[in-house]
Amino acid sequence: MVIVMRVLSGIQPSGALHLGNYFGSMKPNLEYVGKAESSFYFVADLHALTTIQDPKELRQLRKDIVLDYLACGFDPDKATLYYQSDIPYHTELAWILSTVSPMGLLERAVSFKEKVEKGISPSVGLFTYPVLMAADILLYDINLVPVGRDQKQHLEITRDLAIKFNNTYGETLVVPEPLVRDDTAIVPGTDGQKMSKSYGNTIPLFGSDAVIKKAIMSIVTDSKGINDPKDPATCVIFQIHKLFLTDTERKALAAEYKEGLPYGEAKKKLLQTYMDFSAPMRTKRQELEKKAGYLEETLASGAKKACLVAGKTMEKVRKATGLQ
Ligand code: TYM
């Protein structure tokens, strides 16, 4: 049996794109562009309202993420790129899904608790965040959602809500599968915790040379002596560096650590790898920034394509529920 792949993923414009976003989501998603029957990538700007309430900042961050997507290699002729807020069906389906969402299911969401602990205001929007996320996915008949491990529970909620809706109203929504790659499931930040905009421990993908250098040089290390053997399995520098490398390169670098590569040298090597890796993307991003009107045209055409697909699902949902 041939399974038709329909892939989707989203990123919140809540800060500069970092290596966690790139390796946890962008890179695995890029592998599907052109191979999947359809692929949808969007900027989750409605979700970002739960944390960013400065209009000027949000406007800039939304645009930045689109430039990031394009610079990373998302080809808008092969993948549909759009702003979540350009498709009103997302909020419409989110409301309908909320009427079949058990409170208990949302109360168990770890991400809500973690965000509130970090000082984010516990708004109704933050609490129902996973319902909007379910709508983002279910509107497009998606069967595969490549994300980092932190989003896995949200994907489980999406599946639960699709099943709950189908049990209530008959088979209408496709139940999607999360795709979490073990090797990049949780990218560590400069302090060794999960790399996250809200922990202030990120290495941005498109930062200035000075910002990148400062971030890489600040990666935590243990107190081993300069030429002592280092353990690649526990070393945060290595855990970040290996993301850029092939298996053979990884093994060679691990051997250098075991032979006593000083941490300062290890950081310099990582900086060089990062620079070589990001240079073409950074050049592409600068070129895109100069192309007047390109971003707007790309997003308008993406929104048009997304609207067509989402509109068809909404028609089914309206019929199923009796709203039509
Ligand atoms: P966001 O914006 O926090 O992160 C975007 C993607 O990056 C992944 N990621 C990581 N992966 C590995 N290690 C890390 N340190 C790391 N940090 C972030 C995330 O897992 C994610 O895949 N709720 C989502 C946005 C969203 C969405 C959706 C995603 C809204 N609707 C529908 C998929 C499908 C979020 O906040 O991602």
Task: Please outline the helices and strands.
Blueprint: E1 6-11, H1 19-30, E2 38-43, H2 45-48, H3 55-71, E3 80-83, H4 89-98, H5 103-107, H6 110-117, H7 124-127, H8 129-138, E4 144-146, H9 152-169, E5 177-179, H10 209-217, H11 236-241, H12 247-258, H13 263-290, H14 294-321
Parallel strand pairs: 1-2, 2-3, 4-5
Helix pairs in contact: 3-13, 4-8, 4-14, 8-9, 10-13
Bound molecules: tryptophanyl-5'AMP.
Residues 8-12, 20-21, 24-25, 44, 47, 133, 136-137, 145, 147-148, 150-151, 154, 184, 186-187, 194-196 line the site of tryptophanyl-5'AMP.
Overview of this protein structure:
With 324 residues, this protein is mainly alpha-helical. It has helices at 19-30, 45-48, 55-71, 89-98, 103-107, 110-117, 124-127, 129-138, 152-169, 209-217, 236-241, 247-258, 263-290, 294-321, and strands spanning 6-11, 38-43, 80-83, 144-146, 177-179. Helix 3 (55-71) packs across helix 13 and helix 10 (209-217) packs antiparallel against helix 13 (263-290). The structure holds tryptophanyl-5'AMP. Residues 8-12, 20-21, 24-25, 44, 47, 133, 136-137, 145, 147-148, 150-151, 154, 184, 186-187, 194-196 line the site of tryptophanyl-5'AMP. Tryptophanyl-5'AMP binds next to strand 1, helix 1 and helix 8.
